# Entry
Amino acid sequence: MDKLQKGMIIDGVFASEHIDTSGEILEVEGCDISDLVNGVGILNFEHKGDSPMDILGKITYAKKIKSANDCSNEREKAYWNQVKIPFIYGHAELFDGENHPGALAVASLVRYYHNRKEPLLARFSIEGTTLERNGNSLKRSIARRVALTLKPCNR
# Structure
């Protein structure tokens, strides 16, 4: 058996309580992130997931951050200082270590912007099910997947 190859780890804000372009607000407190926490969440590209080519990686960490006090490291604090509103933070491991063509392309994109110290154009977008809505507020929901997208609804 070959030595296990680790993939690139990417992190960021999966979702926040900012109003998105469709006029909706996800309430972080009411969002069940257990699929993401328990290792069954996947990372796809542009909300596509019908083909293995669309599945770029696996969610390896997810956490609700409702205040600066919830931050447990400098990375989380840096995102809190940018967002300053409750959000879901997480990590994903890309399948580039397995030579997945889509994950290799994304890893190249991330390296390009990182090496030039430019902001990455891709963002995260959470996917799941709405259980309870009050107007434009998603009171209770279940997060099932995360998309890496160049067209996020919540910038």
